[in-house]
Amino acid sequence: MRILFVGDVVAPQGCEHLRRVLPAFKKMQNIDFCIVNGENSAQGNGILPGSCDHILDSGADLITTGNHALKRVEIEKYFENENIPVIRPLNFHRSAPGKGYYVLERKGMRLGVINLMGRIYMDACENPFDEADRILSELNSQGIKNILIDFHGEATSEKRVMGFYLDGKVSAVLGTHTHIQTSDAQILPQGTAYITDTGMTGVINSVLGVEIGCATKKVITGLPIHFKNPEGECQMDCVIVETDNKTGRAVSIERFNIQ
User: Fold this and answer.
1) In the chain, where are the structural domains located?
2) In 182-227, where does DSSP find H-type helix?
3) 3-state secondary structure of 10
């Protein structure tokens, strides 16, 4: 099974670049399933019905999110609609709309996707390790071997711990949220593909997709700033994970940066 996972799509600029490059890249790489993190796909941040539809129409099979998943109230009806493949972190409070996992099926293949959020330097949420154990038990009872985790977190240490904690239990633990692709893609000892952060899909000459001047003023002054999303050349950061469909163990993980 060949799984393409695309790093955080940022703003309309990132959405448009995704549409330009994703279809051909999927075809060239013979992709079976495509998962895209879209939590910052709306103008400003968050995700809106329009940006959600855009990502799905561009070729994503499923959208994962993160701490900004519920920032825009308009998206709540999408999370509550089981026919729309968009999920929020599983370990949000139980009152949150939507669900934190999804099972994709195609040509006799099944892929379970779980969205989790870290707790270090992040908003309060339930223990992601406990929630991972709980939902893995459910997926395993359904006979699902191929399982991918989008772990949305700030701290590299917490992401790394999650990778080793789930090594051999899932096919891949792929980090999101920091928007900078890391160089540590690897297969862990028990057969789980891992990367600390998959990266970002958006304007290259920016600060995490934000206009450089805005980000600089925020860092220097500490004052509230209205962030703007700049124009410019974009890049799609992503990884391809190949698994043994029968066992769910990862065979390879490879990083890409598509301009």
Assistant:
1) 2-254
2) 212-221
3) strand
User: Helix, strand, coil shares of the chain as percentages rounded to 5?
Assistant: 25, 30, 45
Residues assigned a catalytic role: 68
* Beta-carbon-side half-sphere exposure of residue 145 (alpha carbons within 13 Å): 12
pTM of the model: 0.96
* 27-79 pLDDT tens trace: 999 999 999 999 999 998 899 999 999 999 999 999 999 999 999 999 999 99
Instruction: Confirm if 61 and 86 have CB atoms less than 8 A apart.
Output: no
C-alpha to C-alpha distance for 239 and 169, rounded to whole angstroms: 20
Q: Is residue 211 within 8 Å of residue 11, measured between CB atoms? A: no
Query: Rg of the chain's alpha carbons, rounded to an integer?
Result: 17
Topology of the domain covering 2-254: Purple Acid Phosphatase; chain A, domain 2 (3.60.21)
Q: What is the pLDDT of residues 198-211, one digit of tens each?
A: 999 999 999 989 89
